[in-house]
Amino acid sequence: MARTKEFDPDAALWAALELFWRRGYEATSMSDLVEHLGIGRASIYATFGNKRELYLKALARYEQGLLPDLLADLSQPGPALPGVRALVRRYAAEASADDSRLHGCFVTNTAAELAAHDAVAARRVERNWDQLETVLHSALARARAEGDLPAGRDPLALARMLLVLLQGMRVVGKASPDPARMRDAAEAALALLD
Question: What are the residue boundaries of the HTH tetR-type domain, all occurrences included (predicted)?
Answer without folding.
Answer: 6-66
